[in-house]
Amino acid sequence: MTKTSAQQTEQHHFPLVIVGAGMVGAALACALHDAGIDSLLLEAGTLNDQTDWSADDVDPRVSALSLASQNLLTHIGAWPRITAMGRLQDYQRMYVWDGCGTGHIEFKASEQHLPNLGHILENKTITSALHQELEQRAIPVWTQVVLQDISPQSQSPRRLNLADGRVITADLVVGADGANSKVRQLSGLPTREWDYPHHALVTRVALTQSHANTAWQRFTENGILALLPLRSPDDSKAGSHCSIVWSMPALTAKEHQAMPEDDFCLALEQAFEGRLGKVLSTDARYVIPLRQRHAKSYYQAGLVLVGDAAHTIHPLAGQGVNLGFLDVAALVQTLQEAQHTGQQFGDSKVLNTYQQRRRGDNLRMMALMESFARLFGNQHPLLSMLRNQAMHSMQSLAPIKQHLAQEALGVGKHLPPLARP
Ligand SMILES: Cc1cc2nc3c(=O)[nH]c(=O)nc-3n(C[C@H](O)[C@H](O)[C@H](O)COP(=O)(O)OP(=O)(O)OC[C@H]3O[C@@H](n4cnc5c(N)ncnc54)[C@H](O)[C@@H]3O)c2cc1C
User: Fold this and answer.
1) Residue 371 pLDDT > 60, yes or no?
2) How many domains does the chain have?
3) Interacting residues of 20 by C-beta distance below 8 A, sequence separation 6+
4) For atom 21 of ligand 1, which residue has the closest CA?
5) What is the CATH number of the domain that holds 169?
6) Model pTM?
7) Is the CB of 410 under 6 A from ligand 1?
């Protein structure tokens, strides 16, 4: 299914071309195929269709997947593959507290009448399952492509020029090529964006105590520390493994990355108030700069953005790819409707319907995360007092807590069909 050799001056036409075979692009291609819509996927890297992982094989990037994302992955057949890989960890509880006070807020699956609040997975398990689904459907994927140009502007069909000389025309080009989207840049779709003063340090750690199937998050004077429960490679052993996402000032993050392992484990244990016992070891530590970005418009005639290409969000609530999967569900719904009414996929009116279905929700979630990041990033004593008071109130006010949980869990009423059970 993969073409890597240069095929000079070859011309191809597809109704749809998706640029980027990451979690969002690959899920979109599978869901479109199931809706009877053919597409070609272009990927700058290679595919990951690894089926068996050794216990030592670790992906430091993990995602907390909502129930809506699980529903989408189930509809396209990827969820059973993920389950079969045996690396899936559900979480029953989420516990968030302010390290500069006594405020805390707690969400439990039982309060929401749900079997769990979601699952934590290494990203590689998701892409691996999705790439196997692409192969099973014989969806064409061209890997190691270098996209050079998209023309003409704001008009369908579009022409894509690849560096090896191949030319593709498409009624609709979908940019699923991540935060630094070349599709977005080539189309000139403007964004609103800014750096957070923080970088995220991510790694996997081994702990002496059980993570208790809980996603833990502590707001500290330096940033936000999340410990997300992972399925341990050896379930028979005591203790547990967690993925950490620790956002902190850029310089502090680099210092923590460079620390000798024992010093880092101690620093982490202290930052986490020793709540999960001792930190025994850590895998390789990675530092990722955090930047918020939102495209002012998700489309032009013949071109549309999904996932991180349209919006990148602070990882503090673990919502990035969940929003991307909802984009997928909404775009598939919109294109199916267009197909039934005989409209062109690249028609601005069609793409505006998709934008209306997603932009408000994405903006609301981004604004919520932004206000959390700012509220907890400020150590003014008065603000700290108000923050703790707000957490106490929220914890005791069931309707507000319920609303927050529903937003984050992806169990709202207005979900597109593919995101429903
Ligand atoms: C520290 C951290 C923690 C996070 N935790 C969570 C979490 O718990 N839950 C959650 O929902 N989200 C989380 N996120 C966000 C999540 O990782 C992203 O939202 C998600 O990876 C976006 O998926 P995507 O497919 O849109 O983009 P990407 O994952 O970036 O995939 C883009 C794909 O496009 C390809 N590509 C790029 N450029 C080109 C090109 N020019 N031509 C062809 N192909 C191209 C890339 O190779 C890649 O395969 C986290 C993010 C960070 C930084």
Assistant:
1) yes
2) 1
3) 41, 42, 43, 44, 175, 176, 177, 178, 181, 183, 307, 309
4) 321
5) 3.50.50.60
6) 0.93
7) no
